[in-house]
Amino acid sequence: MSQYLLRRLAQVVPVVLLVATLVFSLIHLIPGDPVELMLGDGARAADVEALRSSLGLDRPLGEQYLDFMKGLAVGDLGSSLHFRRPVTALLVESYPATLELAVASMAVALLIALPLGILAALRRDRFADHLSRFLSLLGVSMPNFWLGPMLILVFAIYWNLLPVSGRSGWASLVLPAITLGTALAGLLTRMVRSSLGEELHRPYVVTARAKGLLRWQAVVRHALRNALVPVVTIVGLQFGALLTGAIITETIFSWPGLGRLLIQAIRLRDYPLVQGCVLVIAVTYVLVNLVTDVMYAFLDPRIRYREEAA
Amino acid sequence: MRLRPQAWIGGTVVALVLLTALLAPWLAPQDPAAQELERRLEAPSWGHPMGFDELGRDILSRMIYGARVSVGVGLSVVLLAGAVGTALGAVSGFAGGRVDTVLMRISDVFLAFPGILLAIALVAVLGPALRHVVLALVVIGWVGYARLVRGQVLQIREQEFVLAARTVGVPPYRVLWVHVLPNVLPTLMVQASLGMAGAILAEAGLSFLGLGIQPPTPSWGAMINAGRSHLLDAPHLALFPGGAILLTVLGLNFLGDALVDALNPRLERDLERLPRSS
Question: Could you tell me if A251 lies within 8 Å of chain B, comparing CB atoms?
Answer without folding.
Answer: yes
